[in-house]
């Protein structure tokens, strides 16, 4: 290896290749074919953006051959297909198991083109055949109504990363190689993408790879200089600063820079080959050693002009190597003959007549440059992970049940038994199940997992780490204080056929709002693609919840993630609010067995009352909601009021309110309904879990007041149930952004979900109690004031509140 002297280094994307690794591994013939394959990719990329007819330019280009709306992005496409083409060479040479992730958001033409040329696209979509007619359909569908988008969407064979939102490509890539020892994931990072926060933390993922058991990620930072219409930061720092940055991240950076195709092909071939050999050497050393060490994996910094090989200027403005090539360099074809001529000259510069035969098929000698079968990155089973997915081996969740002799007497930390359940799942699935969390596994009371697997750690150790640090290079609990990176790892892990579980604090699950959105959209599209096999569901435990954040205060009080989940497609979203241990275990078992969903489980980690034995909990969770007979006294009659709940603390406070009312009014008839599956509140026409109107009316009545005590923001319940017959009588209590350093009951009082507020709500809404209940209402107000005063004086809630039990 020869290193270019620092004085000769430049940040210019132009000229002959400048590379860290020197050499010319390609023969003249091999270089010619690789270049021709890449030229065919570029031709197809331009055709996708512009053409709806005359796909091989077998006649002069005319306005009617051009799409009426020109959508798509050219700028990063040539670089992407250049890398893809060279990866194909190495797959064939070394018999590699490799997949390709394209970080640049709108770089799909540069990925779709080689996928079509290597034949996978035509195999998946038979109407996009490898001939002139199929090529025309392939062109027309791109960014066209009824066709496909301009990202590497789920319809793109070989894609597990869409890139519609920037920042997640590297974390996705690392998730794919956990427990995949032979897989190399090549991830191309756009230089615009490199400016995002999630991408910045994701570079640290290299510190979570154990080369003895995991595969490898080869990041390629593609510096083409510009975003939509601004320079990118990393393209304008010095070569030395860039090298120092990635050395500081723990990589061994290699540079490939320039624009001259002949020398660039040789430089990229030499560099990629060197990096693969380096990866293999790292893995071989780790797998023959008893000592796990953190290696410096290679990465490539690839600098080329934006819009490489496209028009150099348009209307006197610089295009190639400038932001004007980001999207569509030439426009107004129907009204600008000069632009039409320039487009035709651009496309003919790739010499399609030398690339395709007269029937429109890529020449056989060029087709041979691509791998075949499942060696193609577009047909690799890891990129359609459902093919590889195997159901988890599961212990019987009933074995972790809590004995509940009587409802509302025993207090248990809900997530502790769940931790034991997850522990044994991990023990039974040592190679395809991991648990993810941002430094909170112990905090969230799931630390029983450490009995079978510690936290992964392969960086430096200090002596004190042995005292409770729970660190190991063999660990399968993945902790890093970046929810973005953890979510990306988990998604990559699931998308390649494995299983996982993510726990995080409720207030800060919002960090991954956009990632949740993107994954939900991905699953929704996959549900309409018969060739995409089902993957394991993404399971999120939302804990350390709003009603037990009285010690951390206002910043930690936000249950609004549920509102976001409700926005997404009902075919992929599920929300569960189990009120106790046994219902939580039943829900968790169901979620871990499911596929193609995002399951959101809300359960606090602190001590909470237990209400149901396991058999009762299973029935309750299977129904999704139901009447708790033991908390109701309306059997055989119409209720005066329906007391409904969803969530642990809201359920406790509603039960206490029920007890207060029944003590004051012996004849009041209360029906108590608990909701576990939140989507049961929607009509069955809106969500597959929704109740029919008949069943909903049977539970909630058609005309009686409903007091609904909810875990989250109250308007979400109205949003779900607004079409129900009795919605006008539905009164919801929930979090109203009233919080600070409070006692638990004071926090509930501030937001009116407390027992006293609920009891007064019933008095206000049951007609016969509005006047007869005046004395009771005054009593409840006084009790509420007394509780607040006690909290202010003693810093805790009253003993009669802390020691309250259900005794009816």
Automatic annotation (TrEMBL):
InterPro entries: Phosphoketolase, THDP-binding, Transketo_C/PFOR_II, Xul5P/Fru6P_PKetolase, Xul5P/Fru6P_PKetolase_C, Xul5P/Fru6P_PKetolase_CS, Xul5P/Fru6P_PKetolase_N, Xul5P/Fru6P_PKetolase_ThDP_BS. Keywords: Lyase, Thiamine pyrophosphate. Residues 27-387 form the Xylulose 5-phosphate/Fructose 6-phosphate phosphoketolase N-terminal domain. Residues 1-25 are annotated as: Disordered. The keyword Transmembrane does not apply. GO terms for biological process: carbohydrate metabolic process. Coiled coil: none annotated. GO terms for molecular function: aldehyde-lyase activity. Its EC number is 4.1.2.-. Residues 605-806 form the Xylulose 5-phosphate/Fructose 6-phosphate phosphoketolase C-terminal domain. It is an enzyme of class 4 (lyase). Its cofactor is thiamine diphosphate. The keyword Ribosomal protein does not apply. It comes from the Bacteria. Belongs to the XFP family. This is Probable phosphoketolase. It comes from Leptolyngbya boryana NIES-2135.
């Amino acid at each position: 290896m020869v290193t270019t002297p620092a004085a000769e280094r430049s940040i210019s994307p132009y000229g002959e290749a400048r590379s860290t690794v020197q050499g010319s591994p390609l023969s003249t013939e091999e270089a010619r074919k690789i270049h021709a394959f890449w030229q065919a990719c570029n031709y197809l990329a331009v055709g996708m953006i512009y053409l709806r007819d005359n796909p091989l330019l077998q006649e002069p280009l005319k306005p009617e051959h051009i799409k009426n709306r020109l959508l798509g992005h050219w700028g990063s496409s040539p670089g992407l297909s250049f890398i893809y083409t060279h990866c194909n060479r190495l797959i064939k040479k070394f018999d590699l198991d490799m997949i390709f992730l394209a970080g640049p958001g709108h770089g799909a033409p540069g990925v779709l083109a080689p996928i079509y040329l290597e034949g996978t696209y035509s195999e998946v979509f038979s109407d996009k055949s490898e001939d002139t007619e199929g090529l025309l359909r392939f062109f027309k569908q791109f960014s066209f109504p009824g066709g496909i988008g301009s990202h590497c969407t789920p319809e793109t064979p070989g894609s597990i990363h869409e890139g519609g939102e920037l920042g997640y490509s590297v974390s996705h890539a690392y998730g794919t190689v956990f427990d995949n020892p032979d897989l190399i994931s090549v991830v191309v990072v756009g230089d615009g993408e490199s400016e995002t926060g999630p991408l910045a933390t994701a570079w640290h993922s290299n510190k979570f790879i154990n080369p003895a058991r995991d595969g490898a990620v080869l990041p390629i930072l593609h510096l083409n200089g510009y975003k939509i219409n601004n320079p990118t930061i990393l393209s304008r720092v010095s070569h030395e600063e860039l090298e120092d940055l990635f050395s500081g991240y723990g990589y061994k950076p290699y540079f490939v820079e320039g624009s001259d195709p002949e020398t660039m092909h040789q430089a990229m071939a030499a560099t990629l080959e060197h990096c693969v050999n380096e990866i293999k050497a790292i893995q071989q050393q780790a797998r023959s050693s008893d000592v796990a060490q953190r290696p410096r994996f290679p990465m490539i910094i690839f600098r080329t002009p934006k819009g490489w090989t496209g028009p150099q200027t348009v209307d006197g403005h610089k295009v190639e190597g400038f932001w004007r090539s980001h999207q569509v360099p030439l426009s107004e074809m129907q009204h600008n003959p000069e632009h039409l001529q320039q487009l035709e000259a651009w496309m003919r510069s790739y010499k399609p007549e030398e690339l395709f035969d007269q029937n429109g098929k890529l020449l056989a000698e060029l087709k041979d440059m691509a791998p075949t079968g499942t060696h193609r990155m577009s047909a690799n089973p890891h990129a359609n992970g459902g093919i590889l997915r195997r159901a988890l081996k599961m212990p019987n969740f009933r074995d972790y049940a809590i004995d509940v002799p009587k409802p509302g007497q025993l207090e248990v930390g809900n997530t502790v038994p769940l931790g034991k359940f997850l522990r044994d799942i991990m023990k039974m699935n040592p190679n395809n199940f991991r648990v993810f969390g941002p430094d909170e596994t112990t905090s969230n009371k799931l630390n029983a997992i450490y009995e079978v697997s510690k936290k992964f750690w392969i960086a430096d150790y200090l002596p004190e780490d042995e005292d409770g640090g729970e660190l190991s290079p063999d660990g399968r609990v993945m902790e890093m204080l970046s929810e973005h990176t953890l979510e990306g790892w988990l998604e990559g892990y699931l998308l390649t056929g494995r299983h996982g579980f993510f726990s995080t604090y409720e207030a800060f699950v919002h960090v991954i709002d956009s990632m949740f959105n993107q994954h939900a959209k991905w699953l929704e599209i996959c549900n309409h693609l018969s060739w995409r096999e089902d993957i394991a569901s993404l399971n999120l435990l939302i804990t350390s919840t709003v009603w037990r954040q009285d010690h951390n205060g206002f910043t930690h009080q936000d249950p609004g993630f549920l509102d976001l989940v409700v926005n997404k497609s009902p075919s992929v979203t599920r929300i569960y609010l189990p009120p106790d241990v046994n219902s939580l275990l039943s829900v968790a078992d169901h979620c871990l067995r499911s596929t193609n969903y995002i399951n959101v489980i809300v359960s606090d980690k602190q001590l909470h009352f237990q209400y149901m034995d396991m058999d009762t909990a299973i029935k309750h969770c299977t129904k999704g909601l139901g009447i708790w007979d033991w908390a109701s006294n309306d059997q055989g009659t119409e209720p005066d009021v329906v007391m409904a709940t969803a969530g642990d603390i809201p359920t406790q406070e509603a039960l206490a309110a029920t007890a207060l009312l029944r003590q004051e009014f012996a004849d009041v008839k209360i029906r108590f309904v608990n909701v576990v599956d939140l989507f049961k509140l929607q009509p069955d026409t809106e969500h597959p879990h929704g109740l029919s109107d008949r069943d909903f009316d049977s539970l909630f009545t058609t005309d009686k007041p409903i007091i609904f005590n909810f875990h989250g923001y109250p308007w979400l319940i109205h949003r779900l149930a607004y079409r129900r017959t009795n919605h006008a009588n539905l009164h919801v209590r929930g979090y109203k952004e009233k919080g600070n350093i409070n006692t638990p009951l004071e926090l509930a009082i501030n937001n009116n979900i407390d027992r006293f507020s609920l009891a007064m709500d019933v008095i206000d809404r049951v007609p016969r109690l509005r006047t007869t209940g005046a004395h009771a209402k005054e009593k409840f107000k006084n009790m509420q004031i007394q509780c607040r005063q006690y909290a202010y004086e003693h810093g805790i809630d009253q003993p009669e509140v802390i020691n309250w039990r259900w005794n009816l």
